[in-house]
Design brief:
The complex is a heterodimer of chains A (301) and B (273). Chain A is α/β, with parallel strands linked by helices. Chain A is built from eleven helices and eleven strands. Chain A has a seven-stranded mixed beta sheet, with helices on both faces. In chain A, strands 2-1-4-5 form a four-stranded antiparallel beta sheet, covered by helices on one side. In chain B, the strands form two sheets. Chain B has a six-stranded mixed beta sheet with strand order 6-7-8-3-9-10, with helices on both faces. Chain B has a four-stranded antiparallel beta sheet with strand order 2-1-4-5, with helices on one face. In chain B, strand 7 (167-171), helix 7 and strand 8 form a beta-alpha-beta unit. The chains are: A alpha/beta (301), B alpha/beta (273).
Chain lengths: 301, 273
């Protein structure tokens, strides 16, 4: 029997309260991530990709006016049911995240060393200060930071964006999580730095055997990074394929439009893109071998 | 021979920050021909936006001179020169006054430069400008907050066009936009350039976008111009290792692009040695 997925989302809906009544932003999305797999969720702004990441990391459920329904299982826990306390036991330990803007994700009034110790304490509450420092320095050397001691004594604003992003990746992987949720991890970086950071992240994730849910708007980055891709448009998954299949043979009108709209360095002219997007609402295209695995146990109604 | 629309001779710019002097641009020589789209490419800190600001007269250069159609271009310049050099910025939300209707935002340059003589002419001109950028004339009544990012950027372009400029500085005009919207705005910019015989100084970090719009490219790194060539040569045969490295770092979506990038990667390694 095939091992059940590490993360499984089935028919997830999400709505936010507004003065005009609830606004539905996810209309029943399903996706899964297996152990050690790199899965991308790609879409434009407002597609619902980041709110999906925030549900998986438990940052939305407790907010007032947020209504999430469906099935979101991580390892043995239903992430829509467990409370904030249970989430705290997961976050940063079994499940961690990397965000888009590395500098605002770090606290400006503490040194990197202090913040790193906090991360290590989540998994090992009794860790001593010298032991934490040794492990932090070791983790930083894995993200190619050559002077870990100087970096540990620095404040985030004294480091470059690329350096801060590497620190965050080191922190996210420090407690050996099974799943890393990466929300646009290279977007705020220069292209040469982004390229290096993503390559480094890939090799570290592979070494650690972690799985990744990778949220991005950048199709090129997704092509480079992911094993499988879900394309999301206005709160619905429109196409799901292995990465090579998706780029060789995109079948949903929305995916095709997206790919044709990316300016190519080979100089193909940009096609005219109609403002009328009726075709984008076509039914989802699921490539061969990419059906969602069965949900274990009962699906909560 | 006619003087080029823009010429930079030994242009440098330094900023005093506390006790430190930051050299943002050093001895830049550059020639922008009338009617071309000239891309200024670089990563953060390369000085590309400083260059745009110098051309716009936001501050004077610390060294060298800038000439516009052969005439010395000072930071303090007559109104008519200001009119002829316009700007479209990266973030269309902060570029538009949220308290003004779109129509009022477009009316301001028309009034400042006395380009319309009557109310009806002004109204007519605003409608035409909106149509030129692919928006319904009724947008004039709306406020920027009710527009999408792409629509706002179209309004920002219309506002630049209102001045009937010769040169437009495009500072990352599409980098805040989604890819479908970006493609439409890029096509609009290409179309307007031909129709209105505009010259673009196109500042960007995105080489894919450069390929789609530019004729020539100048690559900047740490305030210095490292390579300037036609867009074809820059991609087919980069001479500077940094240019090759930039091309080699671009995330791509097709096999053909990946092949081109592979060549650039090999070249970057060979040139660095």
């Amino acid at each position: 029997m095939i091992e059940s997925p590490l993360l499984q989302i089935r028919d997830l809906t999400l709505s936010f309260a507004s003065s005009h009544g609830p606004v539905e932003v996810l209309h029943g999305i399903s996706l899964h991530v297996r152990r050690g797999e790199k899965v991308a969720l790609v879409g434009e702004s407002g597609s619902g990709k980041s709110v999906t990441a925030r549900i998986v990391t438990g940052l939305l459920q407790s907010q007032r006016g947020t209504q999430a329904n469906g099935y979101v299982r991580y390892e043995d826990q239903d992430l829509l049911k467990i409370g904030e306390r249970a989430f705290r036991a997961l976050r940063g330990i079994r499940l961690s995240m990397v965000f888009q803007d590395p500098t605002s994700a770090l606290n400006p009034v503490f040194t990197i060393g202090d913040q790193f110790r906090e991360v290590l304490r989540r998994a090992s509450p009794d860790i001593s200060i010298p032991e934490a420092r040794r492990r932090a320095a070791d983790a930083l050397s894995h993200v190619l930071i050559h002077e870990p001691d100087r970096v540990l004594d620095s404040y985030p604003f004294q480091l470059s964006g690329g350096m801060n992003q590497r620190v965050l990746i080191a922190m996210a992987l420090a407690n050996r999580p099974a799943l890393l949720v990466a929300d646009e991890p290279g977007t705020a970086l220069d292209v040469t730095v982004q390229d290096r950071t993503l390559k480094l992240m890939t090799s570290l994730i592979e070494q650690a055997g972690a799985a990744v849910l990778f949220i991005s708007h950048n199709l090129g980055v997704v092509r480079e990074f992911a094993d499988r891709v879900y394309v999301i448009y206005r709160g619905r998954i429109v196409e799901h394929a292995r990465t090579a299949d998706l780029f060789a043979n995109p079948r949903h009108p929305y995916t095709r439009a997206l790919l044709s709209a990316v300016p190519k360095i080979t100089g193909e002219p940009l096609p005219p893109l109609p403002e009328d997007n009726a075709a984008f609402s076509a039914p989802p295209v699921i490539h061969d071998g990419c059906a969602e695995p069965p949900v274990r146990g009962d699906i909560p109604q | 021979m006619m003087a080029p629309i823009l010429q930079l001779h030994g242009v440098g710019k330094s900023f005093q920050i506390g006790e430190h002097t930051v050299q943002a641009l050093s001895s830049v020589d550059l020639r922008i021909e009338t009617g071309e789209c000239h891309a200024i490419v670089g990563e953060s800190g390369s000085g590309k936006s400083t260059l745009g600001n110098l051309v716009l007269g936001i501050y004077p250069p610390s060294a060298g001179e800038i000439r516009f159609e052969g005439q010395l271009l000072q930071a303090k310049r007559p109104l008519d020169l200001k009119r002829r050099i316009q700007l479209v910025q990266q973030n269309p939300l902060s570029a538009l006054n949220g308290k003004r209707s779109i129509g009022a935002s477009l009316a301001l340059p028309l009034d400042v430069h006395a380009l319309v003589r009557s109310r009806s002419e002004r109204r007519q001109r605003i409608s035409t400008l909106l149509e030129e950028v692919g928006l319904d004339p009724q947008f004039a009544e709306r406020s920027p907050s009710t527009l999408s990012g792409g629509q706002r950027q179209r309004v920002a372009i219309a506002r630049a066009l209102a001045c009937e400029p010769d040169l437009i500085v495009l500072d990352e005009p599409t980098s805040a936009l989604d890819v479908l919207v970006q493609a439409r705005v890029l096509r609009l910019l290409a179309d307007l350039r031909t129709r209105k015989r505009l010259t673009y100084l196109f500042i960007t970090h995105d080489l894919g976008v450069v390929r789609a719009l530019a004729d020539r490219v100048s690559v900047f790194r740490q305030g210095r111009l490292v390579e300037c060539d036609s867009v074809h040569n820059i991609f087919a045969d980069p001479k500077h290792p940094y240019t090759a490295q930039l091309i080699a770092s671009i995330p791509v979506v097709t096999e053909e692009e990946a092949a081109l990038r592979g060549t650039a990667r090999a070249l970057a390694a060979a040139l660095t040695e």
